[in-house]
Write a structure and sequence with these properties.
By secondary structure, this protein is an alpha/beta fold. The chain has a single domain, classed as Rossmann fold, CATH 3.40.50.1820. The longest helix is centred in the middle third of the chain and has 17 residues. InterPro entries: AB_hydrolase_1 (IPR000073), AB_hydrolase_fold (IPR029058).
């Protein structure tokens, strides 16, 4: 797998000057007939967590031709490598860039000349699905959309169960923000986290990438490495967990999409994080289940997610004509 990195800025960023880090994944001699994947990660995560999924997916072929031309994974501005690039800009911002802001950056990226003539497929996990929905409005640039365990719930059911939803948010927030988040080194972080939830349920490849890319170095101003900490700050994580607005709005956009647009859902098979009302609100091109996984399917069973995606991408590439809104 060939990996290259880019960073970019975009017009009307809030705050001005925000940067986004992205990585391109491809195989030698990739062909222009294949699909170009645009990948967005979930809260607390980072772009490299898609790599175990891509390990086998980039090898998939249809009639001797690779299904995937290339894949691009993008960091949320407050996560992963992007968080380090934007640290000074975001240090005094307790909310951090919104999901909508991330979607705006992704849209700028996919509408650039880089992707002229590409067949784009959007694939999002958790809040990454919401960001990609925002990037698709208006005039969707994607040929298909795949939502992997998106944090969606229909507005009607949300308001009918507001107390239960708020209680769930508070529990999730407490669990996430009470975790230890500083270590003397990545080696210490690895040893401390590997046997704790949720990391002990993760695929080893995903966990190793989290330690390598999901943490950032904090340097003593007087010289020397002081410690490592989560790239996404607790304040920015809290905003992502507690603010349900982007999920409700992005789900509304999902409902507004043409019912014939290729829209696919991938769930874990454990107790469902996404309410059944999401499935009942509109028709989908396919609904897949990843075995031995829950909401963190991309992290817990990347090979299972890859197998689901391979079927979806095969159906997409077999289509006689691209569908775009």
């Amino acid at each position: 797998m060939i990996i290259s990195s880019v960073t970019f800025t975009y017009p009307d960023a809030k705050p001005c000057g925000l940067q986004v880090a992205a990585k391109r994944y491809s195989k030698p001699h990739s062909l222009p007939d294949g699909l170009t994947l645009i990948l967005a990660h979930g809260a607390t995560c980072h772009k490299e967590l898609w790599e175990p999924v891509l390990d086998s997916l980039l090898k998939s072929e249809y009639r001797g031709t690779p299904i995937v031309r290339e894949a691009w994974a993008l960091d949320w501005q407050s996560h992963g490598e992007s968080a380090t690039l934007n640290h000074n800009l975001l240090a005094c911002d307790p909310q951090g860039p919104s999901v909508e802001e991330w979607g705006k950056a992704i849209r700028h990226f996919v509408l650039s000349e880089t992707f002229t003539g590409h067949r784009l497929v959007a694939i999002g996990h958790c809040l990454g699905s919401s960001a990609l929905i925002f990037s698709a409005m208006p005039d969707c640039p994607y040929e298909a959309f795949v939502n992997v365990e998106g944090m969606w719930i229909s507005p009607t059911v949300y308001h009918q169960n507001i107390d239960a939803c708020n209680a769930m948010k508070i529990r999730t927030y407490a669990t996430a923000t009470d975790r230890r988040d500083t270590w003397n080194s990545r080696e210490e972080a690895f040893a401390c986290l590997i046997n704790t939830m949720p990391y002990k349920e993760w695929d080893q490849r995903a966990f190793e990438r989290y330690v390598n890319y999901g943490l950032r170095d904090v340097i003593d101003p007087d010289g020397g490495l002081s410690y490592v900490t989560n790239a996404c700050s607790k304040a920015h994580l809290a905003e992502a967990i507690l603010n349900h607005g982007p999920q409700l709005v992005s789900f509304g956009y999902c409902l507004d999409m043409d019912p014939q647009f290729p829209f696919h859902i991938i769930f874990g098979e454990r107790p469902r994080f996404v309410h059944d009302s999401v499935l009942e609100s509109r028709s989908y091109s396919s609904v897949s289940r990843v075995p031995n996984a829950g909401h963190g399917a991309v992290l817990q069973n990347p090979d299972g997610v890859s197998a689901c995606l391979e079927k979806i991408l095969l159906d997409t590439i077999r289509g006689e004509s691209p569908f775009k809104l």
